[in-house]
Amino acid sequence: MKGQMVLVLAAIAAVILALASDASARPKIVVLATGGTIAGAQTSTKEVGYKSGTFKVEDLIKAVPQITELADLTGEQIVNIGSQNMNNEVWLKLAKRVNATLKRDDVDGVVITHGTDTMEETAYFLNLVVKSDKPVVMVGSMRPATATSADGPANLYNAVAVAIHPEARGRGVLVVLNDEIHFAREIEKQNTTQLDTFKSPNRGRAGVANTGAVHFFNKPAALHTTASEFSVEGVDVLPRVEIIYSYANLGRDFIDCAVEKGTKGLVLAGVGDGNSTDPALAALGDAVKKGVVVVRSSRTGSGLVVRNVEIDDDKMDTVAAMELNPQKARVLLMLALMKTSSPKEIQDKFSKY
Ligand code: GLU
């Protein structure tokens, strides 16, 4: 009898040990939640209206029970907002939290839930200031959590699968949605409501992720994370940079106003190849003379803006955004302005990042 008891106890101990070692063998992923449609709830499932950032991080993880087979997840709520309300302050808080989390030996990667509206901006900001090779994967959804065929749970599952994939290391910040993986620098939201809203028009996707099966196609095209010169260490405020949207008949008033209000940098969301009207260009030229750094980008959604095509950047002392769309050019310009206000040096950074 006593012998049997010992055998039973030994068996129980073996099972406990096996379970414990199994759990410790699973990668550890921290989910940092910021809100967005992935955490959004409708008042009625028959209506298109909904409120972003309603559900908490624990609810998002619970909605995908099979995710715990991939990794040990812990969740942390950074903010709970629609990403249309994302701002520099939250970016700094988030970036510092990502860096602190990835420094931990017991953490293998970070997944960030986020609204899709400004996902590309947050992704690019983090891509330049995260100081780790460990995977950072951003994820959102186009349908709220309460919708029929909500896409959030599958996207979150794929995001964790990407975050634990050995090839995800060293690729900079990645974005997962609609079974696709995109690089932070390349991704753009291009549709208001459809599931395939994210495109990487200039250089293509990083890869695909389908029901947790991950395939990478590409390496990042520019410097990022550990190779980036930018840091948020000790930074509480980012320099003010505004975007001016160009269109037929644009005058100079808004540009003059931005300069009067003290902006340090201006990004032109130019027509075509980063172009604008004569009055707007005259105002931008005056802004440069007052020490404001002016970057020419394009509202077209793809392609390069290079120096000295229709506009003489050498003469105007302006910067060409190269492959960055206006909202990402703003991110790089804010970080660059913390290092220098020389248009020449800032042009060099637009060629590198
Ligand atoms: N406004 C929402 C957001 O960005 C909608 C987009 C989404 O999350 O899909 O948070």
Radius of gyration: 23 Å
The average pLDDT is: 93
Q: Helicity level, as a percent range?
A: 25-40%
Number of helices: 10
How many structural domains in the coordinates?
A: 2
Largest β-sheet summary? 8 strands, mixed
Distance between the termini: 72 Å
Structural class: alpha/beta
* SSE sequence, one letter per element: HEEEHEHEHEHEEEEEEEHEHEHEHH
CATH topology of the largest domain: Rossmann fold
CATH architecture label name of the largest domain:
3-Layer(aba) Sandwich
Bound molecules: glutamic acid
What is the CATH first-level class name of the largest domain? Alpha Beta
By DSSP, the count of extended strands is 16
Query: Going by CATH, what is the homologous superfamily of the largest domain?
Result: L-asparaginase, N-terminal domain
Brief write-up:
It contains ten helices and 16 strands. The chain has helices at 2-25, 57-62, 88-103, 119-129, 152-163, 253-260, 278-289, 313-316, 326-337, 343-352, and strands at residues 28-35, 41-42, 50-51, 72-81, 109-113, 136-139, 173-177, 180-183, 188-189, 198-199, 207-210, 213-216, 241-245, 265-270, 293-298, 319-320. The protein binds glutamic acid (GLU).
